[in-house]
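ATP synthase subunit a
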Amino acid sequence: MSINQVKRISYILVMLFVLMPVRSAGETQKEGLDLQGILFGHIQDSYDWHITTINGHPISIPLPVIVKSSTGWHLFLSNRFAHEVDATGSRPGPYNLYISGSGTNINKVCERINGQEVRPVDISFTKTVAVLFINSIILVLCILIPARWCKQHKPDDPAPKGFTGLVHMFVMNIYDEVIKPALGDEADKYAPYLLTCFFFIFVANIMGVVPFPPGGGNLTGNITCTLFLALCTFIVTNVTGTKAYWKEIFWPEVPTWLKCPVPLMPVIEFISIFTKPFALMVRLFANMMAGHAIALAFACIIFIMFAINPVAGGLMSIISVLMSVFMMLLEVLVCYIQALVFTMLSAVFISLAHVREHEPEVVSK
């Protein structure tokens, strides 16, 4: 069975999980277990870092909430929001603020002004932001430790071992197999950016697989993060593009009737400038979000089957645990593949923007 077949089966199981009978979902919620809340709560951003729930009491790490409402700026910890929801499904908090439980502002800090729900200026230190800082610190440490070794040794010294040797292997593999073939003589110029992309995405992906703090944050499964990474590649690609690159976009070497009077090919080429980073953004976001959702769905199937029938739950537990372990191992492989694919495509897009004028061939007589 190929990886693509496994992914198709996994997607079908996720859809079955979402479309399970209402009776099963209702029974599990009565028992104090919100399966959809577990699934989407892990994927979505939040104002606290939930760890576990013991005897109905959630254990979480509160994070700073920074908002500007109609009464001014406010700074407080997220544990001041009530854990219990009110009649509207919202969680009341201080300063007439609350976390909305429905509508377009669900799970966002809101306030009521003249009976209407309004979003204040929100620059809170959410779970995604906390994970971003943690992953950045880990990334800096992973790079500075091997860099210190390189500073203290000469190029002809024996190769490093342990963690430093592992990082060296990753750097040389990405440089020699991805960056150098795509960019050639300009590899050294863009290697710092491309290697930063690879290691940042790889560290973020691996930390997302770790099921406990400081891991467990689905950073690359957040489309805002992947949008920023794709935007960086977009800027580097187009700002450093050559004159020949822009000429091929606005006046490509195709028959004139494809360029004038209707600029068919220039429009297509111009749209491709934006579709390339868009593909980078969606590919990374969708693959990482789907991987987390599938792994959680397999675990949640146990509780769904126990709510339907204890015997079926016992049998399904074995299958769900095995599939969850398999998906977690597959997810580790996907963490590397997605970081590699993003770096490789970024290198290819940059190299395509560095085309040169075609020199006419000299025909010898």
